[in-house]
User: Fold this.
Amino acid sequence: MINVPCATFYQNHSAADNFMPSDQLKTAFYLALQAFPILAGHLKRAGDGRFSMVVDKDNLNMPEYLESTSDVHYKDIESAGFHKSVWPSGVATVGPVMAPSANSTIKTANVHIVRLKDNSGLILFLSIIHCVADGFSYFTFLNHWAAACKAIRSGAVETPKPVVEFIFDRSIVEQSLSTERKQLDPITSGIFAQSSLFSKWLAWISPETRGRMLNLFGSLAKSEIHVFHMAD
Assistant:
């Protein structure tokens, strides 16, 4: 029940006035979302504690999309090696564990665009809950969003379709699994495979309550963050 969050940094090298325009970014996001309808779904819990993602066209759970400005300059972040201590406050709008938003609903995706001082750059924060997308799926969506942005800037009438067809039916994976299983090591087995009163209780409570509780526990634990800068 964790999030897959990531903050990406973009520098305005040419000092362009129309650097990554807000309207184009937002329009492209919702165009990309059309290929990923699962990101507008509701997390539902069955009686046995299992979860499913339900997309109801009459009651969509739209991702949170925020934009703000900051008095922190891109160069200040770059000179500090992108260390989180110099980031503008509030870049990450969600924690590592999924939890309900202000309206008590768990959002499948959260976006926060932070425009840096003097139009020097931009931070794009995107978080997707892990039960919907892993790291590969996360960047697949991010790349599709980027393709939609590029199409809009080029004046294309239609957003390019994904190069592959996305399937969101998890049962297809289960049908393809081998019946042979590797024996779990004792630690993994104890955490994920063995039943306990605590695990049954976690499965019984709502995902909203579980998220609040795990975020509280996480805030009490010491953690460390790493930012990786990949250059050509």
In short: The CA atoms of residues 32 and 143 lie 9 Å apart. The radius of gyration is 20 Å.
